[in-house]
């Protein structure tokens, strides 16, 4: 991996997940993570990461700047840091609902910017990260891809789809976890203890995902393999559909993107 020093501006849940994922391949001494309540980063500090509440220091010491702040904070922080961000920096934003044009308006036009949308599975190297840019060079896009490939997998998309990527890929973690929680609750109701139900549900979801990823099949093809005439699987699936399972999930996804785009 390229050993350019990386600063993660905003060491909250997502920023910290990115840091934890990067540490599998990146020297901790070449990473800065910032947070107002810097004591919450003590676990990273203990393994050699530079932790600080001083964003300016982190920017001055780094070549790659990953902004992982709350959307309402990014503009004020960028304007504070603008005098210190040069054309030699690569700016990567993982902030939802803040476009490349908005980012450019806060810094010099010569600064190359990449938007990225990973998810919290970055901490264990299983994120799916969508990347988009309008002015980054091929070399800098490759650098961004290399960073996020170390956190899972990456795909490049048009920036117009970044809100959709946020909902499907980042919010999607919560949707899937809620589904797993419901499976666990159902498992307990039919006789399993919570620990066993959690193991069965979690591994089953992991296995279902791998079937799609490795075989490249449509979900219905795999569903057909486990549904038999008058069987318990089709009876359960049909009851879920009668109760609005698929439509409620689709409505939830649409509601999430409408919330992002409300402004």
From TrEMBL:
Species of provenance: Kordia periserrulae
Keywords, ordered alphabetically: Amino-acid biosynthesis, Cytoplasm, NADP, Oxidoreductase, Proline biosynthesis
Residues the entry annotates as binding NADP(+): 9-14, 68-71
Top class in the EC scheme: oxidoreductase
Cellular localisation: Cytoplasm
Keyword Amino-acid biosynthesis among UniProt keywords: yes
Biological or metabolic pathway of the protein: Amino-acid biosynthesis; L-proline biosynthesis; L-proline from L-glutamate 5-semialdehyde: step 1/1
GO biological process: L-proline biosynthetic process
Species classification: Bacteria, Pseudomonadati, Bacteroidota, Flavobacteriia, Flavobacteriales
Alphabetized InterPro entries for the sequence: 6-PGluconate_DH-like_C_sf, NAD(P)-bd_dom_sf, P5C_Rdtase_cat_N, P5CR_dimer, Pyrroline-COOH_reductase
Reactions it catalyzes: L-proline + NAD(+) = (S)-1-pyrroline-5-carboxylate + NADH + 2 H(+); L-proline + NADP(+) = (S)-1-pyrroline-5-carboxylate + NADPH + 2 H(+)
Protein name per its UniProtKB record: Pyrroline-5-carboxylate reductase
Entries under PANTHER family matching the protein: PYRROLINE-5-CARBOXYLATE REDUCTASE (PTHR11645), PYRROLINE-5-CARBOXYLATE REDUCTASE 3 (PTHR11645:SF0)
